[in-house]
Amino acid sequence: MKSGEVFSEQGQKWYEPDWWKFGDGKTYFRHASGEMFVISKALARFVSINRSILRTYAFDDVSTGGICAGA
Fold it and tell me: What is the domain partition of the chain in residue ranges?
């Protein structure tokens, strides 16, 4: 979870024109951060059925690519 400063002054690099909609106007609401993967129901079923023959790897992009390539 993370939160961060809302840049409310025009001209700032990450200026947010709707800054007043977020949190207390100074910080964003706490929210999840990081990557998220969305897969189809068919792919989830494939992974579930074939979990005994699928492998995981050290990096998520390799693992995801490996699963998609086998589908």
Answer: 1-34, 35-71
Which amino acid makes up residue 19?
W
Q: Give the Cα separation of 16 and 5 in Å (integer).
A: 10
16 in the Ramachandran plot: left (φ > 0), alpha (ψ -120 to 50) or beta?
beta
Question: What band does 48 get if pLDDT is binned at 50, 70 and 90?
Answer: very high
Mean per-residue pLDDT of the chain: 75
Q: Extract the tokens encoding 35.
A: 């990557």
